[in-house]
Amino acid sequence: MSSSSPSPSFWHRPMVARRADERHRASTMLELFFDLCFVAAVAQAASAFEHELAAGRIGHAVLGYAMVFFAIWWAWMNFTWFASAYDTDDVPYRLLTLVQITGALVLAAGAAEALEHEDFTVITWGYVIMRLAMVTQWLRAARSDPERRGTCLRYAAGIFLVQIGWVVRLALPEDTGLVTFAVLVLAEIAVPALAERTTTTTWHPHHIAERYGLFTLIVLGESITAATGAVRTALDTHAALGDLAALVAGGLLTVFALWWLYFAQSAPRLLTSLRTALLWGYGHYLVFASAAAVGAGLALNVAHTAGHGHISDRTAAAVYTVPVAVFIALVWLLHHRTSGLRRAGDVLHPVAVLAVLAATYAPSPILTTGVITALLITATLLLAARGTDSRAEPAH
Fold first, then answer.
1. Where are the beta strands (DSSP E) in 6-140?
2. Where does 172-266 have alpha helices with state H?
3. Which of 31-40, 305-314, 368-377 has the lowest mean pLDDT?
4. How would DSSP label each residue in 142-176?
5. Using CA atoms, how far apart are residues 133 and 131, in angstroms rounded to an integer?
6. What pLDDT score was predicted for residue 239?
7. Any idea of the CA torsion for 57, 291, 367, 386, to the nearest 10 degrees?
8. How many CA atoms lie within 13 A of 107 on its CB side?
9. What's the predicted TM-score (pTM) here?
10. Are 299 and 53 in contact (CB under 8 A)?
11. 295-308 pLDDT tens trace
């Protein structure tokens, strides 16, 4: 007789390592929910970034955005790699993941205050909530996986010690804020390298690539949402439709091209060692941050066209073109060999980066950027069709 009650194993399972070659490994509904909740943090950071840019505080905006986005990215990334190796999907695992989501929402609530007023109190506590939940997850793994117990305990100890540092930082004088932030960031990114120096966790290359791809979709989607809201506001203020049409067309072309560019790559083939995985994973900080900044830059240009903001035309254009150039450059660097430029396809991305930066000085920089990125995709497809760039792959 069947029963609708969960099986006993659902309540608690040993947190043993999953196989790195597990077939048909895909993101779970809990992971997708986790990503969805991080949209709030990305949206708040991008919105506050745009606000600071519009006020003309460019340096302050860029620095604050980099700091806030690090907290979002690092907490997301650590959960992603842990889940790839130790997702048991039992009740304790789910509850601890929900605690991390709660921390993400607290972080989102404090993002604007941190970026605009350099008050990191709320965002720090949200971050610490997420990270302490990860400590508990690693301790569970250490108990159930004797082969990797040392690795798991190093993760737990390293994360816990750094969280003490983040809390202590709140009590330090304001003039030490940037230095202590840099030190703690270095400590955070050192933990995985130190923890896995002898025995690595069993993360799944295809699962990791899929998870990173999903987060890329989130930040690109947030760009579309931010731009849509900005256009709606501009229409309410009776901005010129011709100017808005050029911005919208250029923005859509750019986002479509960035999506195509990212998903034309085969990431799993690169994730063959801890060193390459760390480089690839860490490099995505700039991929994610630049993708989210594209939306903020487009929204800022829409507002600027409508007569809002206190920045020059050239600065408004650079706020958009620079993140686009960074995204293209990082995707190329992370997925291609850069030891030499021996094929036609090898020079396409560097040339496109330079062309996008030059578009800052074009009469219609957003539309020009969209055309350049569309031409980049067209050129890569033509070269792939001719067989001159064997690394180019169609998006799946």
1. none
2. 177-195, 205-236, 241-263
3. 305-314
4. HHH-GGGHHHHHHHHHHHHHHHHHHHHHTTS-GGG
5. 5
6. 61
7. 150
8. 31
9. 0.86
10. no
11. 888 888 877 776 66
